[in-house]
What does this fold into?
Amino acid sequence: MPLDPAVQALLTQMENPDAPKLSELDPAVARAGFAAMAALQGEPEAVASVEDRKVPGPAGDIPVRIYKSSSGPNLPAVVYFHGGGWVIMDVETHDSLCRALANAAKCAVVSVDYRLAPEAKYPAASEDCFAATRWVAENAEVLGLDVSRIAVAGDSAGGHLTAVITQMARDQGGPDLVYQVMHCPVTDYGYDTPSYAVNGDGYMLTRESMGWFWNHYLPTPEHGAETYASPLRGHLSGLPPALVQTAEFDPLRDEGKAYADKLKAAGVAVTYSQYPGLIHDSFLFMGVVPGGRKNVDEAAEHLRRAFGT
It folds into this structure.
């Protein structure tokens, strides 16, 4: 089908032929530019509480932000990993999204401000996210959370980290996770899928910009073959149930579907949803693209079901 009219309007609004390409920018400059995208998520929703904390990590303290939809004890929790190609974005750019998800899923959301590349290359981001996930499980009672109802979720590179952290948790003795949500995830180091061929330019995320992200993230191209860099290449049995969302006009569409298919083949309960007319990472546009809000609401519905709420 054609582009969603709201997406087309957004792309038209953001079109600037004089602006430099992402691949031409220094990461620090790119981060400053993408910070403005937080406004596209709409007005931040009120939640019961928001708390900034620091948790121990492999290379120092990791900042996290904890959103609670209510003040009651034993809240289920989602450990959330933001997108941004492992290079840009942070907890601030995803503040409105995490608030909306906490309210819609009736849970706590722990947003992880993991180290970014190229200052901290692979596997720094996944190590930080795994450390934060373990910290949530180990401190659940003190935090007022239910250790038996912890899920992980993320968008784009955060979807990649979600896939990786579930594999790390299985491989390294926990924590036990009840669900995973991957929105438009990166799952493989490669650019040879049909969706890269047809959606690699003109829909915000491009093949060229994905090359920029990967080149900053990986120490060497050879690292891309490792399963914690390309989770699609790992064995996927024994992982928690999953929701995988993709978008029709996303270069990452096919690797997201391939991951869902491989999860299913491995015996994992998985729901795969491809959204027609949308572009990459519509979570970030939920305030101006109704389909983006539908993505969030579907994720919240599946999380509530997994939590039994």
Observations:
- The chain has a mean pLDDT of 97.
